[in-house]
Write a structure and sequence with these properties.
The complex is a heterodimer of chains A (199) and B (617). Helices cover 38% and strands 21% of the residues of chain A. With 199 residues, chain A is α/β, with parallel strands linked by helices. Chain A has a six-stranded mixed sheet, with helices on both faces. The longest helix of chain A is centred in the last third of the chain and has 16 residues, at 179-194. Helices cover 39% and strands 17% of the residues of chain B. Chain B contains 22 helices and 22 strands. Chain B has a seven-stranded mixed sheet with strand order 3-2-4-5-7-6-12, with helices on both faces. Chain B starts with a helix and ends with a strand. The chains are: A alpha/beta (199), B alpha/beta (617). At the A-B interface, helix 1, strand 2 and helix 2 of A face strand 1, strand 8, helix 11 and helix 14 of B.
Chain lengths: 199, 617
């Protein structure tokens, strides 16, 4: 028995930690062991944010290189930065709309071309790419981007958490005011992967 | 889960808790009456949870001015028979250390737990000091949990133990344990009497030398007794009994060891130490008897490794000890499963599989930065402008701990020297005496109260010459927005007297003292110039709320746009480096309306007056 390992990365303020908690609580409700690691602090000021979840038998939430079954990247550059984490049989879900680092105009290295990012991600894993920002906007609010990503993850083959429990966990963790938008965002993300929006 | 569930959950309920949240639940189950802290990552969420649930749970909680005060508040409560809990980041314990040393001598009546959250790999700290040394320095019993459930359970255990032996207990977590989430099963919360009474006993509680001499002897006797308990303690457990390698480990390193051993079916014996000080000599001797060689896996310093070497030497045992001292494992940074795997492989002489060479990708970095609309950005801009106008050269910028430490980055480059909380002011004293360079230092409001006042008094009294800018953004921003003495609200959300920074500065004897609204660039620059021309200690208080608070307020019904007049001079982009201002692929400058906080700073500095307010209908 091995744990199912999920690595989530993106940029501060995208709702990554909340999404991870929604997943973790849903896994717990399924009776599965789950551990998670989150990094706070400096990351909140526009830096990289990442969480790691292991569902199944594991004591440490830290995912060694090449052992993530699923990478959920809220931002394409951050997907590329996390690429070493993905296992050979792993899946990648990435948002395609970039957030440029604040100092990109003076950065030594330019922001990579999105097509090159996607090509590289697809080269050793199954890739689902979606414009989560656009989908979130259509769902009613850009802040529902995290639930678009969660919905997309839920549709990945072998994803170990029941969809119904995820929805229940969303109800318990998200503000009631925006729940409908978030549920819609989730469903749109889910459907976009089901419909095979992979490149 | 909602924060309130932490206090509402019943025995047997399971919650998916952060280590820091589990600490609060443990405190509640243990009947803690008094809790105190100064916020610091990775311990900050403990205080954030207390500030929400303390009042309803009948607990007194405060954000103290600094960690020393926090420890003293908790110590007095424990001396009065109540259970008390104080918690801080690792460097916070340095601040509290002066009182800690004496507290362990005199001991406690009610149980007292001190939690130190260490930060191996320095995710949000200035060093990665290993606070297990404090257990040895102060002679205080130490517990090291590996996960949230253990944190909660050890809180219960620690309070009972502390009360039984009348000694405070130090719990050491690390970032990976404090910021780990896991399933935690709840226990009961019993009703407790929260009214303390202090029975006087100066021969115990006032460590004049003759008392201290007696107390130290008593402490040594106590620790000897405690060591017997630790040797028997079921908290120190063995796992897997295979082969001739014994691994001794603790904290989150234990998690890595177990995952690596179990995934790869490695033939090893594991001893997990949870009650780690006093070092359980008997238990360790029994464990190493069975094995031929030993590997110690611990973060960050070789602390247990040296304890083990002492045990081995004392008992005349000849066995190879691997760890940090022989180079098997690294001496710095946190571990991860890969590092542990490699370490065990080395000791077991297992050939590692071919490592795939890491592909080097030249990716742009994503450093943290000041938020859009942050008042600090405006201060840095105006100060740089004033310096340029006065043609000052070689200005030294001592800085301090808070969001404004991000001022080290270009284009502000206003951070040259930093040691610890409050060091901006103290080191300015030194720089102004040691050099003829102009000194401009920065300190935040919360940091000023924490450790900035004594050095300011020092500066005035010793006739120093520098400009101190107090960046009063009305919160403890970096750690998530906790209250501090300069605000009209306390740690439990109640109204509280607001301590005026202006009056504190005045009372310290500062003659040149001005308060500015940093978002008014022109006026700020004039005042900074005056302050820089002043000979002596000048203080400018930049008062404007953190945008993370402000944006929670009323909505501004306009957007800020770049108009056609823009000639692409890039001044806004280059001198402000605001995340909301960007250059599009066609080279034009745009403002991201989602990110923009409408602080108006870019509007003021645009030489072409091309950035304008656009009223929404």
């Amino acid at each position: 028995m091995k744990s199912y390992n999920i690595y989530i990365s993106g940029v501060g303020g995208q709702g990554i930690i909340k999404t991870s908690i929604v997943m973790g609580e849903a896994a717990m409700k399924m009776g599965k062991p789950v551990v998670m690691s989150e990094i706070h602090g400096m990351a909140q000021r526009g830096g990289v944010v990442s969480t790691e979840l292991k569902i199944g038998p594991a004591r440490s939430p830290i995912i060694p290189e090449g052992q993530a079954d699923l990478l959920i990247a809220f931002e394409p550059l951050e997907a590329l930065r996390a690429i070493e984490k993905i296992s050979n049989q792993g899946y990648v879900i990435t948002n395609t709309s970039p957030i440029f680092p604040f100092n990109i105009s003076v950065s030594e290295h330019p922001y990579p071309d999105i097509n090159i990012i996607l090509e590289e991600l697809a080269s050793n894993s199954d890739l689902f790419a979606l414009d989560a920002l656009e989908i979130a906007k259509k769902a009613g609010h850009i802040l529902s981007l995290n639930m678009v990503m969660l919905g997309a993850a839920a549709a990945v083959p072998k994803f170990p958490i029941d969809k119904t429990l995820l929805l229940k966990s969303m109800e318990e963790n998200l503000p009631p005011k925006s729940l409908n938008i978030n549920l819609k965002a989730f469903e749109e993300g889910y459907q976009s992967v089901i419909k095979g929006n992979n490149l | 889960m909602k924060i309130k569930d932490i206090s509402k959950a019943q025995k047997g309920d399971k919650l998916f808790l952060l280590g820091n949240e589990a600490a609060v639940r443990g405190a509640l189950e243990s009947g803690v009456s008094v809790a105190s802290t100064y916020p610091g990552t990775p311990s900050s969420e403990i205080g954030d949870v207390f500030s929400v649930i303390a009042k309803k749970s009948g607990i007194y909680f405060e954000f103290s001015t600094n960690e020393k005060v926090a420890l003293e508040v908790a110590a007095a409560a424990a001396a009065s028979g109540l259970r008390s809990f104080t918690f801080m980041k690792h460097v916070g314990l340095n601040v509290a250390a002066d009182s800690l040393m004496s507290l362990v001598y005199s001991g406690v009546n009610g149980g007292m737990l001190i939690l130190s959250a260490d930060d191996p790999s320095m995710f949000s700290s200035q060093n990665e000091q290993d606070n297990r040394h404090y257990a040895r320095l102060a002679n205080i019993p130490m517990l090291e949990p590996s996960n949230p459930q253990e944190i909660k359970d050890l809180m219960n255990y620690g309070f009972q133990f502390s009360e039984e032996f009348q000694i405070p207990v130090l719990m050491r977590t690390t970032t990976r344990v404090s910021h780990m989430r896991g399933i935690v099963e709840m226990d009961n919360m019993d009703e407790v009497n929260r009214e303390g009474f202090f029975h006087k006993d100066p021969s115990r509680f006032v460590p004049v030398p003759e008392v201290a001499r007696v107390n130290h002897r008593k402490l040594i006797e106590k620790i000897a007794k405690i060591e017997k308990e630790v040797n028997k303690s079921p908290l120190n457990q063995t796992y897997h009994n295979n082969g001739d390698l014994g691994i001794i480990t603790s904290g989150s390193a234990f998690n890595y060891v177990m995952d690596v051993v179990e995934e790869n079916n490695l033939p090893v014996n594991v001893l997990k130490l949870t009650f780690t000080y006093p070092f359980p000599e008997e238990k360790v001797l029994e464990f190493i008897k069975k094995v031929k060689k030993i590997l110690v896996v611990e973060e960050v310093d070789p602390v247990m490794e040296k304890d083990l070497l002492a045990v081995i030497g004392k008992n005349g045992i000849i066995k190879k000890v691997h760890g940090k001292l022989d180079g098997t494992l690294p001496l710095i940074y946190e571990y991860d499963p890969q590092i542990i795997r490699e370490g065990i492989n080395k000791v077991l002489k297992i050939e590692a599989g071919d490592e795939t060479p890491e592909k080097s990708r030249n990716l742009p970095k994503r450093p943290p930065t000041l938020c859009p609309g942050c008042p600090h950005r405006a201060v840095y801009y105006s100060i740089k402008k004033a310096i340029a106008d006065l043609q000052l050269k070689d200005v030294i910028f001592p800085t301090d701990i808070g969001c404004y430490t991000l001022g080290i980055e270009a284009p502000y480059e206003a951070g040259d020297y930093l040691l610890s909380m409050g060091s901006s002011v103290g080191t300015s004293c030194g720089f102004s005496k040691a050099t003829h360079q102009k000194v401009i230092s920065f300190i935040g409001d919360s940091t000023f109260f924490h450790a900035g006042i004594p050095p300011l008094i020092n500066a005035v009294h010793n006739k120093n010459n520098f400009l101190l800018v107090i960046l009063d953004n009305r919160t403890t921003a970096m750690t998530g927005g906790q209250s501090h003495p300069g605000l009209p609200v306390d740690g439990m959300g109640d109204e509280a007297p607001e301590i005026s920074i202006e009056k504190m500065v005045e009372a310290s004897g500062v003659v040149f003292k001005e308060t500015i609204n940093p978002l008014n660039l022109k006026k700020s620059e004039i005042i900074f110039k005056k302050a820089l021309e002043y000979s002596g200690v000048a203080v400018v208080i930049s008062k404007y709320p953190c945008m993370l608070i402000k944006s929670r307020g009323k909505k501004k019904n306009f957007t800020v746009n770049v108009q056609e007049e823009c000639d692409g001079c890039n001044i806004c982009l280059e001198e402000l480096s605001c995340p909301a201002i960007y250059r599009t692929e066609d080279g034009s400058i745009k403002i991201d309306s989602q990110l923009c906080r409408k602080c108006s700073v870019c509007i003021q500095l645009c030489p072409e007056k091309a950035i304008k307010v656009h009223k929404n209908k």
